[in-house]
Amino acid sequence: MFGYLREKLKKTRETITGRFDELLKGSQEREEILDELMETMILADVGIQTTEKIIGSIKAKSKKTDSFEKIKSLLKEEILNLFSSQFLPQKSFPIPFISLFVGVNGGGKTTSLAKLAHMLKKQGKEVLMVAADTFRAAAQEQLSLWGKKLNIPVIQGRYQSDPAAVVFDAIQSFQARRCQALLIDTAGRIHTNTNLMNELEKIKKVINREIEGAPHEILLVLDASIGQNALVQAREFLKFSGLTGIFLTKLDGTAKGGSVLAIADELDLPIKWIGVGEGENDILPFSPKEFTYALLGTK
Amino acid sequence: MFNQLSDRLQKALKFIRGEVKVTEKNMEEALRMIRLAFLEADVNYKVVKDFIENIKIKALDQKVLTSLTPSQQVIKIVKEEMTSILGREEKTLQYSGTPPSIFMMVGLQGAGKTTSCGKLANWIRRTGKNPLLVSFDMKRPAAQEQLKTIADSLKLPFYEMKTGEGEDPSRLLSELKSHTRNHGYDLLIVDTAGRLHVDEKLMEELLLVRDILNPQEVIYVGDAMTGQDAVKSAEIFAEKIGITSILLTKLDGDARGGAALSIVSVTGKPIKFVGLGEKLEDFEVFHPDRLASRILGLGDMLTIIEKAETEADKEEAKELARKLRQQTFTLDDFKKQIAQMRKMGSISQILKMMPQAGAFRKISGLKVDDAKIDHFEAIINSMTPQEREYPKIINGSRRRRIANGSGRPISDVNQLLKQFHEIKKMMKKDRFHKMLSSFPLSH
User: Fold this and answer.
1) Does ipTM exceed 0.90?
2) What is the pTM of this model?
3) CB distance B140 to B193 below 8 Å
């Protein structure tokens, strides 16, 4: 599986490795090396604050005469430290398992939901998907087509209807059918829209009222190419709907998704899954090691 | 994002303002802060580098250093430089001399291509054109339905592509072309599949569509929230497909697009439109100078005024501005304002666009939610004229009566009064006063 990820993340890696190889040949000053690493991190969307924090800490831990290799391994350690609160890859799910997918428009919520549903089904679970996006044109059809393709039932709602009501109906159906996993797709919303954010809160309340302890998972679906706004988004969604983790999508492009470093660091939110393509199997558990490897282009 | 950028820039510029004289040394520090602010706003690293170099050369010019107002000079240079990157002037769409014209929308997944197709068609229709919408996205589930739904809701025609296996794409495209011509459409707007720019197969497909249709405009739809990678994807689309213009989406929210600077710098193509929300009317012509001002914290006055002029009653807006200034603002005026705001966007959004409004951004009372607007109107309607004129007399029993009359809980009445007072309080502040006096709606 990791070999597969490595292949998928090749594009991410390629761009960086070339430059580092050049650095390896020369005998640069530490400052020069740090400058180069800083640029790499900023270009990976890690962000100024987190980058400065990491570089500062490497500076404190290294000697002026340290080699490029030494400094790079220090950097790797620092990044892995940020992910220290990271959970181990999720292997088992509670029963029932109710999961809510939230995020801004165009992040890949519906596709990501279908991927996770497919994975759960492969584990032998009875899965039900809910299209609670009653706003975007054809959002209902999109999930229902996934349902047909994956042979997973989908509860649909009427357009313009209250998504919380759709979710309520879905829970009744979920219990009647005695399913084990319920995955709920929600409409994309920009986090500054207070009304829509309150709507999420309401959906969550409805779920919790019907099934104690649910939702068990609230995933923020985040596009890897989003820049520094990723942290702001995570912060806002955390505030309104609560979050249990991040689903990082579109990592098969050239974007490195470095913005999740700040999210892991500041909000202590685990990155749970990554999306690496358009197919139902293009889902992988997040691995801090592999991610760092891809980010820095090194083992 | 731009809020943060504005804050940082304001800080940097304040730093410059604080100096009696701009020297090479303190200029260095200011430039460093501007650089950091831009990076934080996701402007690409290399773009920032070039930008700062240019500013430095111009800002350290002797004329600037010896001028009476060096700080203003630096602001002017930063703004000019940004405006020049963003395109200097507004550019119009290119139509074919012999109709139909063909516009093709390209971009990454999730950038907002399909929604933008609808928004653009809707906007163009107002200029007297008769557009037809079609989608070539055969890959994403329900992509066809999405565009069709959008077209239907706008009462715009939608052309159904045959999607069967074994259909020859070039024949389908030729059919589409003759259909467009024969049915009297003068514009065809083509939605395409979004995939990552590293997908070579997609690029080939797009090339095929482009070669057969020979569009006048290839519009790159870019997400304003994009980070450093904005440069790479735009570059590849520009290089392989050849884009003619840019449409920037998701400019609502607080990520207002350092990516804009990046995309324009690497492609050299102008941004022509911006998407500002999920509704199909949330769409505007792009104004480079306004975005540059906005980044610098000078606000987007022109946008507000334009909105006020087209959508709200001009005279009423003038009157409100006057009353705000003279602080004779009553609950009746508040109601009128609410009604106008319904057309113009929320007060918090409007304030965000105003210069110096940063300081007011955090006032909680300014969050007027769309659903609340109806309630507020109902509550004010349940007040006597006297109460509207002198809200101070609204005591407990009056509150109860108003609540009963409007069918809202007393807490809503309290909230309304609180917000009204906060706005009045804010109006008394000097800065707000200054801000309003720069509002050109005055006589």
Assistant:
1) no
2) 0.75
3) yes
